[in-house]
Protein 1
Amino acid sequence: MPSQLPKGFSRPFLKVFHILEAILLVAITLATIAAMTNEFVNIYVNRQIQLTDILLMFIYLEVLAMVQQFVTNGKIPVRYPIYIAIMAIARYITLGMKQLDGVYLVWLSLAAFILAAATLVIRIGHHYWPYEKVTEPHKCQSED
């Protein structure tokens, strides 16, 4: 449904919104790259790579993939945050394996399984019931 706001209000608002969006995307990208660099320096200084470091790198990689998807397509597939959540749970389990209570460990594992199953259901759903292509109305040069 098209917006009911007057065009005199919505156009400047959308321009400000797009500028803020671009600034935040750059900030997220730079912060992720800084965090990855910090992790690499930490690995280099300690001269030791642990599984938790690798899982953290996958989380950073998924954040960058989300930014790339948003810049390319203007939207983020729901799978990407689910992948990040699965990696975060796996990292949490790996970090605290010795301190975690058995029941809590089972709950965390069940949460990761549910997220993986949700991803599978989403992928199957997109295969059998893909989104319809939404075509935007053609803009005239005079509207810009």
Note: Helices lie at 7-46, 51-73, 79-95, 102-128.
Protein 2
Amino acid sequence: MSSEIIPPAGDQSPGPDEAFLHHCLYFTTNRLSRAISRIADDAFATTGLAPAYGYLIRLVIGKPGITQKELAEKLYITPSTLTRFIDKLEGKRLVERQVQGKTVLVYPTDKAFELEQPLRQASKKLKETYEAILGKEAAALLTASVEDAGKQLE
């Protein structure tokens, strides 16, 4: 006879075949990513842009003429993904590219500058929402821990 304890039928604790998921960094960070993405999508809905596009525009506004390479590094995305993002934002007339030799510089348009405050408000709403759920201190600690872990794992 096994010494394994079988939980009552209504118990929602993980069974032995799935318990590993709750101790797996890959699974738990993906779960966190999906949850924060839903909150971010909601916060940025009023801007008409996905959060990644909003942060890209904020970086371009903060440093007009920023290189595509620098943007990709700051956003932790591949150059090809960044190119697709910029293509889309150019189509919406929010950014312009200028080629200087082998370097591509990205500039905000007047339309982008009009979005600066709504984008800042969306970022603020996002932070306020997750801080309300997690608590300010826990949110700051989690952010710092995830940032540090990301650096170490790269």
Note: The mean pLDDT is 92.
Protein 3
Amino acid sequence: MELPGTSGAHRAQPARRGGGDPGTRGRTTIADGVVEKIAGLAARDVDGVHAMGSGISRTFGAVRDRVPGGAKSVTRGVKAEVGEVQTALDLEIVVDYGVAIADVARDVRENVVAAVERMTSLEVVEVNIAVSDVKLPEDEDEEPESRLQ
């Protein structure tokens, strides 16, 4: 049965340009440094993590942080390898004395994976954690005193 006002021919649908959802057109790339910042901040949020990076990198970083105009490096102790849909991370941390290192490492992994996946939509395939030191209660801060005033 034909509807009134039609001649049996199909009405032309409006032409779709570009095809598909506009939000899916094009590529998004995420730099390694972006993932490293997200992971560094997420790792530092975990109780029991005293610092990130090895002793030498923390010393150089502390000096750099005190130079006027120098920014604090949130990527210290973090290395990311970012692909198109996945990322892998290596973290170097210093833990506080008395914490259960396995628990801190698990909490760091969970926090880092959640933050990176939520913010980047990349799949985190692994988070390797190297504990390079333990901060003893009587240890003075490793950061050298600045000669700048």
Note: The longest strand covers residues 123-135.
Protein 4
Amino acid sequence: MPRTPKELSQPQTDIDHLVRAVNQLTVENRRLRGAPSRPSSPVRALPTQRPNRIP
């Protein structure tokens, strides 16, 4: 059965929405990565893990 024009355009619409979401998340990620370097930032870097010590 042939697909309708709407069915054919849906994958492209989904791709466009996903690309926008990825771009927004990339911008937010860059902003958050730069945040710890600002003194008034509410974001704090997580402490690094200590190596396991053998007793």
Note: Helices lie at 5-34.
